[in-house]
Amino acid sequence: MNIVATDGYTLNPGDNPWDEVASLGELEIYDRTLPDELVERCKNADILIVNKTPFSGETLAKLPHLKFITMAATGYDCIDIKSAGNLGVPVSNIPVYGTDTVAQYVFSSILHLAHNISIHAEAVRKGDWSKSKDWCFWKRPLIELKGLTIGIIGFGRIGRRVGEIANTFGMDVLANDIYTDESPSYNNFRWCQLEELFEQSDVVSIHSPLTEDNNGFVNYSLLSKMKPTAFFINAARGGLVNEIDLASALSQGCIAGAVVDTVSVEPIHLDNPLLTAPNIFITPHMAWGTLSARKRLMVGITENITAFISGQAINVVNKQFLG
After folding, report:
1. Which domains, from first to last, does the chain contain?
2. pTM score > 0.85 for this model?
3. What is the pLDDT of residue 323?
4. N or C: which end of the chain has fewer CB within 10 A?
């Protein structure tokens, strides 16, 4: 089997060997691949390993040997999975590798906002503490999470883990998901409609996959329903949020702050309105990237390819489009 990794650098920048994957076939690894390089690099591939490289139906149709695609990620919105299915190519993702890592990022973001850590650290660096008349000071209100409410949109593995952590902090948990058949065991939880979630929550955190139906669904109408003291967190997909509306909500004081790890176009463009919005921290899509999580990704890639070669593909996300 000819195996091609189109954008392998983020998975292994030098600390996460490909040895197990390489044992499964002839492996060719590219750090990153531009759109006009895709067909030439992948034309002989039986199997593709893809993290974020976009594959349109037109491109997939030009790969005559392609039999299988495994994501090096949970999300698969960069692949035209319908076209892949029509071509008889199953696409598998890796659903569980980043649960704890991303949930950790979300809560570190919430805690950062609650104590305004960067603002106060910078104030100390500038000498404000050394000039203070008192032994302590704070420039903005400090927030205790116990008794507050977190609203979680998308209650899959990561959303549930965020809810568990919130519960240990004594927070009430609201959740919105298309699947509501399994509630968590803790008591301070309930399902609710989207509008109520935005109205009632002190923190809103998104954990939904990006689809054609929910692109940009977080808009000004929803954001303006939030408390002016509330925080907004997005460690899912940037395309879920109307970025102009989020920038407006921040500028107008509709919400107190935001942390986003993803934006609609990555790498971020310099004209992205969030770059000039107040009270927002933007990180470079790194919530998933701990070494522990990337090692689990490598194991997941190996398992997906092994299962496909054995004739029993697992974690297939485009079953409905396969003939």
Report:
1. 2-97+291-321 (3.40.50.720), 99-282 (3.40.50.720)
2. yes
3. 79
4. C
